[in-house]
């Protein structure tokens, strides 16, 4: 049974073709390992009518973007990298929203914190890619904003496994809790 005294939301990070579709520049073969756990989390959150926030990369085509100083152009609005992985699109219900982001952290330059606070959310179950980049940046900012963080180990990974493992260790030690899929499903 879920603990409704501490409201929880599911934050899905970048479940987009850019990372999961073979042939796309950000694709890596192990990315698909997180899809089943992410699907289970999404199904449970919908079943329990939890807030689900789909945070997705959305860069503006043809305009300068500071992120592109470090990594190649990707996930421009309307390009072939930006679509959701099939079956992970937001559904039409009030508790499910898309939040576009232009930086690694879903909190930077967005209204995510305002949205969560308006809904009384205190705990975030976080899943998606990549552990050492967008996931870690989001977790770190969530911690700084005072949220309880549950990062689902089976529902995140990276094309740099050693950095993913180091990030999981740091997140568990300094920012939140790295939990099993089973623990996250119970919390939702």
Notes on the protein architecture:
This is Nicotinamidase-related amidase. The chain has 188 residues and is α/β, with parallel strands linked by helices. It has a single domain (8-187), classed as Rossmann fold (3-Layer(aba) Sandwich), CATH 3.40.50. It contains six helices and six strands. It has helices at residues 17-20, 35-47, 112-118, 131-144, 161-175, 181-187, and strands at 8-13, 51-57, 96-101, 123-129, 148-157, 177-179. Strands 3-2-1-4-5-6 form a six-stranded parallel beta sheet, sandwiched between helices. The longest helix is centred in the last third of the chain and has 15 residues, at 161-175. The radius of gyration is 15 Å and the shape is globular. The mean pLDDT is 94.
**H/E series:** EHHEEHEHEHEH
Query: How big is the Rg?
Result: 15 Å
* Strand line-up across the major sheet: 3-2-1-4-5-6
Shape: globular
The name of the CATH topology is Rossmann fold
Number of domain modules: 1
Percent of residues in helices comes to 25-40%
What is the name of the CATH architecture?
3-Layer(aba) Sandwich
Helical segment tally? 6
CATH level-1 class: Alpha Beta
Record field, number of beta strands: 6
Low-confidence regions: none
The overall pLDDT, averaged over residues, is: 94
Amount of beta strand: 15-25%
In short:
The protein has 188 residues and is an alpha/beta fold. It has a single domain, classed as Isochorismatase-like (Rossmann fold). Helices cover 32% and strands 21% of the residues.
């Amino acid at each position: 049974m879920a603990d409704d005294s501490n409201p929880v939301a599911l934050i899905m990070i970048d479940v987009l073709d850019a990372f999961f579709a073979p042939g796309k520049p950000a694709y890596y073969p192990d990315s698909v390992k997180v899809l089943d756990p992410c699907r289970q989390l999404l199904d449970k959150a919908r079943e329990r009518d939890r807030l689900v926030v789909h945070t997705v990369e959305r860069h503006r085509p043809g305009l300068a973007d500071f992120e592109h100083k470090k990594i190649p152009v990707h996930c421009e609005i309307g390009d072939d990298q930006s679509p959701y992985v099939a079956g992970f699109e937001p559904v039409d219900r009030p508790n499910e929203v898309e939040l576009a982001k232009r930086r690694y952290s879903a909190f930077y330059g967005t209204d995510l914190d305002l949205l969560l606070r308006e809904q009384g959310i205190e705990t975030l179950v976080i899943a998606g890619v990549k552990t050492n980049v967008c996931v870690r940046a989001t977790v770190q900012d969530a911690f700084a904003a005072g949220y309880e963080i549950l990062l689902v180990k089976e529902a995140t990974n990276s094309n740099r496994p050693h950095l993913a493992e180091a990030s999981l260790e740091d997140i568990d030690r300094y920012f939140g809790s790295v939990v099993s899929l089973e623990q996250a499903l119970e919390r939702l």
